[in-house]
Design brief:
Largest sheet: 2 strands, antiparallel
Structural class: mainly alpha
Helix content: 55-70%
Strand content: under 5%
Number of strands: 2
Shape: globular
Order of helices and strands: EEHHHHHHHHHHHHHHHHHHH
Strand order of the largest sheet: 1-2
Number of helices: 19
Radius of gyration: 21 Å
Oligomer: single chain
Low-confidence stretches: 1-18
Length: 456
Amino acid sequence: MTQDTPPPVQAAANTPHRGWMEELSAASVSQPVPDALKTMKMDRVFWSHFSPNLGPGGWVTGALLVSLGLDFRAGVAAVLLGNLIGALPVALAAAIGPPTGLTQMEASRRALGRLGVRPPALLNWIYCVGWDAVNNVPAATALLTLLLAMGLHTPFWLALAVLAGVQMVASIYGHHMVQALQKYLGGLLLVVFTLIGIVFALRGQAPLATHHAVSLGTFMLAVGILVSFNLSWASYSSDYTRYLPARSSPTKVVLLALAGLLCSAIPFQILGLICAGSVADPSPTAVIASLRQAMGPLGGVALAAIALSSITGNSFNDNTASYSLISAGLHIPRVAAAVLTALLGYALAVAGAGRYTTLYTDYLLVTLYWIAPWIGIVLADWYLGDRTVHAVPPGWTRGATLFVVITVLTIGLFSTSSLYTGPVAAWMGGADIGYYVGFFAAFAGYALSRPKRASS
């Protein structure tokens, strides 16, 4: 067997099972990957953090910065700063996978306990369902437009169902299929989107020389959106590094994950800034229309790439969601969890397609308030401890209480969205610092109160 071949999957009862499909039992999620199956190649770390960001989401986010009031120079500064801040915790979390062999949620039970991990796991499942919808709306719009250009009149719900069905099948197969899609489909999309980016940058109406004053609150809001764009992967990261050999270099894992995130998010968002002058509004329909027009005869290629891009992102979402639902305490076969996630994501996408921009910005901002303190606690537990596998606390820990308290306080005091603005955020003119406060308060709080454990 070569290292690039998916490892034979082993059932919970140690019954051999060979093929691309990951073990289907709930136990395969809660237990570490056996050493014999940890044969993943290191390059997959880059692709698994690079490919899910290949899609119209980056373009929409870049164009959104202009609609918020940023000029090109401030927009580029926000893109660089926001992505670096958001990507660092994700890359650091990726290094937890190889030595523990656990998914990201299951690895966090070290700090939160078996009972305490259930609230963030449930939140992550809800979060994955929402991202499923966010990714599928522009992809289905692109597929619909492509089919219409071919003379096929297809309703939105049917185009969406085709994409959701493919994504669901990939997530049912699980880790090995998802990783293969990231590498091979991601490589194809990289070539196509590079071509799209070059053509659009040459033909787009970019207000590069236009400068105007940007308030601190507006800039901080934009940075917050960009932080959330990458930080949202923090709850996924070790899901796709746990099949690496346990002795894999943590430095290589962190650097490859960081490179994957930054090399996909930053160029796409800057291209969104460049295109903003020729996009009517930061919505999937407007962005897709401008891409198609700029590509001319290759417009169909652009539409196909956008439609395919949802498969790399949402196979991730559905697969991680199936892990998280099991970690939340619902002990059902992984395939049932994957199907349930895909169906709910489909329903949410159909219901929310008409108000995509509001759903997108509010969802990015509000849901990230729980991830920041959670990953702060996870990283404090791992990097300030001895990084060995410990006996897992069976119940609810002080870390779990800290997570809940800081999450509620940061939402109540610091959040900024169309749904609710906290008093501190209002006093600061709408500047959103909730992520930073939540992360550092949780990290410091856990560091000062973390318990001493005996190795198991």
